[in-house]
Amino acid sequence: MGKLGLCLPEAFHTARKSPALYSGGKAMVVRELPDGRCLVSTQEDHAELAAQFAAHWGNRRFSQLRPFKTMLFATMFHDSGYREFEGNPPINIEKGRPFALREEVPGFETTELNAYAKNVEWVYSHDPYAGLLVSMHRTGLWHNRYNVFIKPAMRLRERSVAVQTAKEALEARQAEIKRALAAGNAVFENELAYNYRALQVFDLLSLYFCCDGYDGEDQFKPYTVTPVPVVYDSDETVELCLLPNGPRAVRMEPYPFDVSPLQVDLRVRLLAPAGEKSEQAALEAYQRAPRRLLTFELTR
Q1: Which residues of 270-291 are buried (b: 16+ CB within 10 A; e: fewer)?
Q2: Is the pLDDT at 19 greater than 70, yes or no?
Q3: 63, 82, 111, 148: which could join 43 in a potential S-S bond, CB 3.0 to 4.6 Å?
Q4: Count H helices, E strands: the chain?
Q5: pTM of structure
Q6: Tens digit of pLDDT for each residue in 84-136?
Q7: Domains of the chain, residue spans
Q8: CA–centroid distance for 32 within its chain
């Protein structure tokens, strides 16, 4: 067990006991605006934002990531399975836009599970350690991120037989890769525990700026992630707080990045509702939507 307490085999064992209903797929990252329009990002847009946080993580108090290249690669491609269908995403006809994060996508389970598996294997083929982290990210989402956070609270959902089967296959592969990477490396377990939790922090921060953190069109609401690891080879954790600091800006306590202010960018599509309620009309509106680059500022 690493010092941060993420004992992976036990976490996997607990996760396999969870009930079995599929809660639906997720496709695009969508933020609905008061005027009826919405901002839509692909999962790779979301991951690109997460990777900006990873690239700047670390200062006198917080450890810089290690291995740095592996962590950036894993963060950049942690949700890239969605590229399989984001070119022509499944459409929520009633809302006139692509299905959003956490919405149920009818009849989409097999497509989604195959896409996850293909992306994990693609990442493995380039960097086995990165592949391990991406695979753990996926299986962790099926079990409350392996309960490594107190805040934000997540709802434990029941999973279908197909999801449980896919999860067991991914975890079996994880065990193989883990054994190979841990051979002769006494700090591997602790490093992996830190890096898994760090990837979850980057994912949550990105989702905050993409869709979850808003109190109005450009104003944020307070947000907390805890416990967040501080340095490798230590039990020290902190409560990471995001506090509104003006339009598209937040202040963070404690501050985990190498520069302040830190500016990060998110690519979005500004999507107006389609004129008619049909899959074709909504898909055309999505493809024709103007692209925008949103810039956010984080400070001490």
Answers
A1: ebbebeeeeeebbbebbeebee
A2: no
A3: 82
A4: 8, 9
A5: 0.91
A6: 788 899 999 999 999 998 898 888 899 889 999 999 999 999 999 999 999 99
A7: 8-299
A8: 19
